[in-house]
Design brief:
Elements: H1 13-18, H2 36-48, H3 55-69, E1 74-79, H4 90-111, E2 115-119, E3 133-136, E4 139-142, H5 156-159, H6 164-185, H7 205-226, E5 239-244, H8 248-251, E6 255-257, E7 264-266, E8 271-274, H9 284-290, E9 296-300, H10 306-316, E10 325-329, H11 336-349, E11 355-358, E12 366-367, E13 373-374, H12 377-394, E14 398-404, H13 439-455
Parallel strand pairs: 1-2, 1-14, 2-5, 5-8, 8-9, 9-10, 10-11, 11-14
Antiparallel strand pairs: 3-4, 6-7, 12-13
Bound molecules: phosphoenolpyruvate (PEP) and manganese (II) ion.
């Protein structure tokens, strides 16, 4: 009788060894765990739990990102600055997915370009911090590093790094991605539902503009259906997950060898990025992620030199593989027009085509006199405009946006058509970390980006 057998794939032992080389290198932004045995136990548990995504999906995403790098698609990446365990409710996950789907419709329709949808979701639990500690009223405790490490409450018990949170982070990610898959594969994301995604949101210019667009899409779909087109394709949408690849005690155990190819993938999400604070060329994060097959992002802040950038390309994408490397620039509205052009000039002379994405959030933070961390909608938009201008001048492709957002009606960023002002911030400020665009501000941003893209 014929035997069904796996393809015979040998993994080079050096590849496996290499996955732990980071342990010998300088590493930043890791928690101080107090119980080594508990970390080992959590790590052992994670290493036998099923992967959260599949290597084949990761490969498909790489080809999608390659088309964005060529200017044939656009990446929309968005979600919380820091997901929380308490925030992983059905309603909140649904509303975030809905906001991203609505933004994608606006971009697709307005700019006639395929939009790759990606959440900062199902694993965005670990945060880099500017200081290891936080002091309040003379009491100093460890900084909050995200729900996967410690609690936000300002008590010694809560702020103590707790390794059991690594496993809870995995399970919370698993239930989040499960719901995302249900929403995006089970008919909820069907383009014929464009109207229903808008329900329940207060009327506002951006929502009215969206309603108008949804009616046009409906009309076009009805016409095509009447003409005999089969729209089964519209029922499902591809939706990818991503988070900062920061916490090595989580990422390493969720790294697996793909049985088809014998090569390693981080299977905690489809896409991982390296943050501005951990992108040191000789550091642990760059080394570790240079050895996995996922598409990788790197945040580039305003001090990035062309040389830094070229060396990151050599290290992370030596084969110059299409879709492998994404640069996420987060320069600040006042800086992008000076800081981005030299990088684009250098890339044109180099033999590389990374995907360029704008993160207009992280270079535009400010703190109000009343102590709220916030961002101005106008500055966020201005950075996006500067990003498009720089690419237009250089002849390179502005390939995506990376946004901190929520589907809820929070009041965390200033401005937008609801005119959120400093006094309003207090009414619904919920983020434990950076301020996010609310649903309405996110839609408004999408309309403005669609205009930029259409003009491109
Ligand atoms: C983030 O994306 O939340 C973040 C910390 O960004 P950056 O690494 O760009 O500072
Ligand atoms: Mn952030």
């Amino acid at each position: 009788m014929a035997q069904l057998s796996e393809p015979f794939v040998v993994t080079d032992p050096d590849v496996i060894d290499g996955l732990d080389h980071w342990r010998t290198l300088p590493i930043k932004q890791q928690p101080t765990w107090h119980d080594g045995a508990a970390v080992e136990a959590a790590s052992a548990e994670l290493s036998i739990l099923p992967p959260l995504v599949f290597a084949g999906e990761v490969d498909t995403l790489r080809t999608r990102l390659a088309s964005a790098a060529r200017g044939e698609a656009f990446l929309l990446q968005g979600g919380d600055c820091a997901e929380t365990f308490a925030g992983a409710t059905a309603d909140q996950i649904r509303d975030r997915v809905k906001t991203i789907l609505q933004m994608a419709v606006v971009l697709t329709y307005g700019a006639s370009v395929p939009v790759i949808k990606m959440g900062r979701m199902a694993g965005q639990f670990a945060k880099p911090r500017s200081s290891d500690t936080e002091t309040r009223d003379g009491v100093t405790l460890p900084a909050y590093r995200g729900d996967i490490v410690n609690g936000y409450d300002f008590t010694p018990e809560s702020r103590r790094a707790d390794a059991s949170r690594l496993v809870k982070g995995y399970h919370t990610s698993a239930s989040t991605i499960n719901l995302i898959r249900a929403f995006t594969q089970g008919g909820f994301a069907d383009l014929r539902q464009v109207h229903s995604w808008n329900k329940g949101f207060a009327s506002n210019p951006a929502n009215a503009q969206y309603e108008h667009l949804a009616r046009e899409i409906d009309k076009a779909i009805r016409f095509m259906e009447a003409a005999g087109a089969d729209f089964d394709e519209l029922k499902r949408v591809e939706f990818y997950t991503s988070h900062e690849g920061l916490l090595m005690d989580y990422e390493r155990p969720l790294t697996r060898i793909d049985s088809r190819t014998g090569t390693p993938y981080v299977l905690s999400s489809h896409f991982v990025w390296i943050g501005e604070r951990t992108r040191d060329l000789d550091g642990a994060h760059v080394d570790f992620l240079s050895r996995v097959r996922n598409p990788i992002g790197v945040k580039l802040g305003p001090t990035t030199t062309a040389d830094d950038m070229l060396r990151l390309i050599d290290k992370l994408d030596p084969e110059r593989e299409p879709g492998r490397l994404t640069f996420i620039t987060r320069m600040g509205a006042g800086t992008i027009r000076d800081a981005l052009p030299p990088l684009l000039d250098a890339i044109k002379k180099a033999d590389a085509t990374p995907l360029w994405v704008s993160d207009p959030m992280h270079g535009n933070g400010l703190t109000t006199p009343t102590g709220y961390k916030t961002r101005r909608f106008e500055e966020i938009m201005d950075e996006v405009k500067g990003f498009f201008e720089a690419h237009r001048a250089a002849g390179t492709h502005p390939g995506g946006i990376h946004i901190e957002l929520t589907g809820d009606d929070v009041t965390e960023c200033l401005g937008g058509s609801e005119h959120i002002d400093e006094a309003t911030l207090a009414t619904r400020y919920e983020s434990l970390c950076d301020p996010r665009l609310n649903h309405m501000q996110s839609l408004e941003l999408a309309f403005l980006v669609a205009e930029e893209l259409a003009a491109d």
